[in-house]
Amino acid sequence: MERITEKKGMEMFPLVWTVFPSTDTGVFVNPFFDRPLRHRCFFEKSKGLTKQLTVFFHLNEEEDSGLFRLSEVFLYGAFNEITVHQLRVFGKIREMDRNERSGFIKIIKNRLAGHASEDQLPLMPTIQEKEKALKKLQGGRFYRFDPLYYDHGTYERG
């Protein structure tokens, strides 16, 4: 993977079909796996002079392998065009505060219901995916991720 500009990273990262956290630097990302977490993830671009991307996401107990003890982590994602685009984004992570958490839950429920949102990716989840995502939101931890740098790589499907 190669480092890309913040502008390019902010354009590409919200397009991912999958997203998951890791402390490993060498994860191979498949755009068709880890889709359930994408249903509990929201990308928000700040408005104003300083453009910034923030990623809000939820992990249940099984998915959360001690992230709450970390302050920095990688988020991985991938999406498919003619080639597969893989992204590795390094940044600061922290648990959401109560206001962020309640806003996040409202946004995710609206997205799962098919309402428009700021997030660029139209989810179109199945009924089963919606039910699973809503059920998982009942427990676990809610995180805010602020990217520091973006890496990108591609490979051709074959």
Account of the protein in words:
This protein has four helices and seven strands, in the order βαβαββββααβ. It is globular and about 35 Å long. It has one domain: Pnp Oxidase, Chain A (Roll). With 158 residues, the protein is an alpha+beta fold. The longest helix is centred in the middle third of the chain and has 15 residues, at 98-112. Strands 1, 2, 3, 4, 5, 6 and 7 form a seven-stranded antiparallel beta sheet that branches.
**Name of the CATH architecture:** Roll
- Main sheet attributes: strand count, strand direction, barrel closure: 7 strands, antiparallel
Measured on Cα atoms, how large is the radius of gyration?
15 Å
Separation of the first and last Cα atoms: 19 Å
How many runs of DSSP E, i.e. beta strands? Answer: 7
Which labels suit this protein?
4 helices; single chain; Pnp Oxidase, Chain A; 37% strand; 158 residues
Topology overview:
Layout: E1 2-4, H1 6-12, E2 18-22, H2 35-38, E3 41-45, E4 53-59, E5 72-80, E6 83-95, H3 98-112, H4 127-136, E7 141-156
Antiparallel strand pairs: 1-7, 2-5, 3-4, 4-7, 5-6, 6-7
